[in-house]
Amino acid sequence: MRVKINLSTKNLKNDIFSGLIVALVSIPISMGYAQIAGLPPVYGLYGSLLPIFVYAFFASSPQFVVGVDAMPAAMVGSSLSLYGITAGSPEALEVVPAITLLVAVWLFVLRIIKAGRALKYISDSVLGGFISGVGATIIMMQLPKLWGGNAGTGEILQLIPHIIQEFSNFNLISLILGLGTVIIIQLFKRFFPKFPMTVVMLLVGFLLSFVFKLENYGVKMLPSIEGGLPAFILPNLKCLKDNLLEYAILSLTIALVIMAQTLLAANSYASKYDYELNNNRELTAYGMMNIAGAVIGSCPINGSVSRSGIADQFGCKSQVMSITAAISMLLILLFCTKFFCYLPVPVLTGIVVCALHGIINYKQAKRLFKLNKSEFSIFVFAAIGVLFLGTIYGVVIGVVLSFTAVVQKAVVPPRAFLGRIPGQHGYYNLSRNKNAKSIKNTIIYRFGGNLFFANIGTFISDIENSIKPETRYVIVDAGGIGDIDITAADKIKALAQKLEKRNILFYLTEHQGHLNDLLRKYGAEKFIENGRVRRTMSLALRSCGIKKPYPLEGVESDLETGYLESEDRLAEFEWAFGEEAEEKMAKLADEMVSNLTEKLASASLEEINEFNIEQMEEKISWGKIGLFDEEQLLENFVIKLENLFADGKINKEQIKELEKLIEQRRKVIEEKVSLINPKAIEMLHSRIKLVDESIHTKREKNILRLKTLKNRIKNEINKTKKD
Q: How many angstroms separate the CA atoms of 463 and 453, rounded?
């Protein structure tokens, strides 16, 4: 696998500075979460060293930050207490890295099955609500530390009682320091956004503590720890054997939390800055960073929303930030741990709260509320899900709501009844165009989504409710229908039959040929063969006997006269029947011949001259034929006449007269085509030449076939005589 740091020399200064800030902010956060996970505080710093460095080389995100974080730490810590393991004990130091190693294994499994692609189906509303919920949850966890209390764990129902309880540890100076830090940083963020006030407040905290001995006034300081590098260990999975199934489920749950929380948050930055995140590569990076965490004894490593917010605030654009943070943490562990006792906890907590406040998407929520209440509801419920039920359930709620919204849109897609605006091309929504008028006796209905079991009822009820006593035709503009299921196909067939009993013809038009394939597949082939699907709206109207200028409701006539739509030049049968088009055309020619066989057998030449080819076409099951398709039909018709002549059912004079009529009809077609496009005449002449050649070829084949058949019959007669 090719690794990449995502180096950006243009933003190198910001990346390095962001890395320094992330390392400084990670000190209190990581130490606190390590304690929650049942480890000594220094293990939080270990988790902010090697895992961050490893992640930088495997990640596809150029700016996301990882480290010891709230959710996995809390889940590990609660499991230790469940199994009676004392926090900070030798047993805890053995069990926690083993859990981290199992988490890494599960992350690689998720990578193999490409579970990250499921996040493509999570909307921006879910993403925004999720991130906002996580930010609000961690703020509530950290809130008591602003006035001297202890951080909480769990969801809002556990955090609220904890916050109230922690007022018993209230310290006024701590509150002034913590709240003052929040106010000052927020003011500078608004009026001087590029000024590094976070670092300034850290230095101010150091200075105040050193000068005024704040610990003497009840202000909590970070604990002093021993410096030095972590020792490498080989996690012992045997320590989990007594509760292996429970630990396997726990580690899988933590892996899912890491995948959901980190991928969602990382994708939100990808969306914000318009770059593509490789989810599979990210999962590989998460697995590698947790292996790195396991070998140094850390709890599971997760994406850090708060620290990513801080890095983003200072213009981070590449993983040089993470490498800088890891190197900074290395130097801190080697040389600076003795100064930790001068860092006031409320000041550092105020910095974290400000970072988390920045990731709560107030603007997105406000915009969704104004523009789309449904999307706003998804945002809110995703955030509430995280607050009340935790990360996984919050995501599940958001995804369910997203799919519910998709289903709702599919069930109730855009629909409209269409009419004509006199003198204008095309068809217009009657409810949105006051000048649009319905075509008399005709309903034109547009359905803007795929037809399936859940929305076919809407489709049918719309049509049935629109029918008036004078309605004779229902034409569906199916241009927006790309797919149909068997339930919808059956009900459309039933609707067409029901309407036909009321002397109302039902047509589908403007759709792709794929829809015709599905209708035939689902048993509605007669619907197509009877000519109730047409390539264009104009052909559907012509099939209904409605010609331009169209008669409109409330208007004497459509002002657009003598205009033939260019769509008429398309080969409608290929569109309707695909590969079976030639076979279907031959069957229609058979119908024409069958209708004429008796008349031709006894008709005189004068009677043949009175035959009307166009009327003959109208009597076949398909109905009116498009201009170029009609030429193909005439070709097939001539061949069928040749067969009649070969079989002795019509004579030579009759076939010559019929061929004259066909030639006359071809001239009519040519004149109509010239109205569409004069250049099409050349193409039509070429087509006629090919048709004539084809007729000659097929005529020769028919003669040869008949001679062969005649010889076979003679042989059979001679054989019979001998017998």
A: 16
Cα 639-642-645 angle, rounded to 5 deg: 160
Our CA angle for 245, 247, 252, nearest 5°, is 95
CA pair distance 488, 149, nearest whole angstrom = 63
CA separation for the pair 4, 60 (Å, rounded): 8
At 52, the amino acid letter reads I
For the record, the structure tokens of 72 come out as 């996995």
- Please state, in angstroms and as integers, the Cα–Cα distance from residue 290 to each residue in 28, 33, 92, 721, following that order: 21, 16, 17, 96
Highest mean pLDDT: which range of 72-86, 92-106, 313-327, 391-405: 92-106
Does the pLDDT of residue 72 top 90, yes or no? Answer: no
Name the residue among 337, 361, 327, 280 with its Cα closest to residue 27.
337
Q: What single string gives the DSSP state of each residue in 51-110?
A: HHHHHHHH-S-SS--EEE-HHHHHHHHHHHHHTTPPTTSHHHHHHHHHHHHHHHHHHHHH
Pure H helices in 373-485: 373-389, 391-411, 456-466
What's phi and psi for 435, nearest 5 deg?
-85, -10
pLDDT of residue 692 exceeding 70, the answer is: no
Which of 387, 413, 401 has the alpha carbon at shortest distance from 482? Answer: 413
* Cβ(422)–Cβ(552) below 8 Å: yes
pLDDT tens across 550-572, in order? 888 877 655 543 333 333 434 57
What count of Cα atoms within 13 Å lies in the side-chain half-sphere of residue 438? Answer: 19
Q: Is a pLDDT exceeding 90 seen at residue 283?
A: yes
Instruction: Give, for 443, the enclosing helix (H) or strand (E).
Output: strand 442-447
| pLDDT tens for each residue of 412-470 | 888 999 998 877 778 888 887 777 889 999 999 999 889 988 889 999 999 999 999 99
Task: Tell me how many degrees the CA angle 572-576-581 measures, rounded to the nearest 5.
Answer: 85
Across the beta sheet with 415-419, the strand order is 428-429, 415-419, 442-447, 473-477, 505-509, 533-534
